[in-house]
């Protein structure tokens, strides 16, 4: 596959001196890898070019025959106000610079400026442009609640509004040249989201995934950057690193929070310079892959002497996609249960069993520290054990530590009472309502939690037709530890 051009939308250089245009193109190519350039030495052509081609940035000379730079700046500002224009002038005059900025120029440089400053200005214009596009795209998506690439998310089962917002954000940032950082607890589906971003951004390109956990510095560098023949004992031939393997596609770097300091520095350099050296080679290679990172650590919290470098964190964090844990989107349970039941039945060569009606409700009292991966494993286990037509709840109850033999809180469970103790009747009322709330209205399950029959629960509920708000219950740590609070009703 031919390497993609950078930036994907060309930049337009306008100057009446063809020699200057050539030398500027060369500088840009060498210093930044920008090779998607349109050169224009006739100021009369500029508006026609803009009508026919989308451009990401214009570098504009001021003194030209036919139309001057300031005239063009006004015309561009009127017709294409979103395209940033950087003025490059031979004149070092404050008034001219001020006039250009008033006319909407993004920046102003004299032609003798050091190339580093010009390049920083260009990069700022790109970032600004990306932010604008992202903003616009997010607004449009949130307003019409529409997904432009629903197929990209096909393998992710969800009915959750929070996940829908995650999908929309992914669509908005997928085309950005900045890296994407996906965060969330272990097993929430970070890799699935990374693949979806890849399908949106470079569907035909390679997908290369590297798990950074446990890689020492040398193996990390060798894996990512590759090596030249003779770089170390045993390096008998050149070997391309994963960054090159992913050119034109996506490099997914998982467990990024586990990187050592030395590896973090190498990664930072790659992000800052957009190029790297294979071990033992002094020829730089361009980074031509989209970078997507994932971690289940809070990298901002890890920043500091023993944790994650702040500068790297800010580079990675340009677009952060935070995936909510399963316990914050239990509305996904029915879909996920069905999905994994069919998947498990197929993998194990069995008929897909019917899930009991109470399964989703039962599971929604558990906090799922291992998230969807844990749910998947539970269902695989239950399917492998099951014999009859309807799946038994027993293996699930065992896994989540739910037992009808122990309906009351464990002896070490702390119960916080208000200053005025609830009466026995009030306390009973609260417990009943809390069980119904946790069981999401499923009376069989609520009755089992309370250690009474369904009929007894129904009778009690009839006594409390005007249900008062249920007492808040904090789940602490795993699904089993709980702190019950009896607050006054009002
Ligand atoms: N919404 C979903 N629909 C279907 N399967 C899912 C969903 N979310 C996660 N899974 C499945 O759950 C498992 C864990 O997902 P994944 O590996 O993407 O999680 P992760 O967040 O990257 O985990 P880790 O942090 O441990 O690397 C995989 O088998 C994945 O296919």
Show the helix and strand layout.
Layout: E1 11-14, H1 18-32, E2 37-40, H2 46-52, E3 57-61, H3 69-79, E4 85-89, H4 94-102, E5 107-110, H5 115-144, H6 161-173, E6 180-183, H7 190-201, E7 207-211, H8 217-225, E8 226-227, E9 239-240, H9 242-245, E10 250-254, H10 261-273, E11 275-276, E12 285-286, E13 290-295, H11 299-302, H12 310-316, E14 319-322, H13 333-348, H14 359-363, H15 371-385, H16 394-400, E15 415-416, H17 424-438, H18 443-450, H19 454-463, E16 473-475, E17 482-485
Parallel strand pairs: 1-2, 1-3, 3-4, 4-5, 6-13, 6-14, 7-10, 10-13, 15-17
Antiparallel strand pairs: 8-9, 11-12, 16-17
Helix pairs in contact: 5-6, 13-15, 17-18, 18-19
The protein binds adenosine-5'-triphosphate.
Protein name: Chemotaxis protein CheY
Domain Sigma-54 factor interaction: 156-384
Keywords: ATP-binding, DNA-binding, Nucleotide-binding, Phosphoprotein, Transcription, Transcription regulation
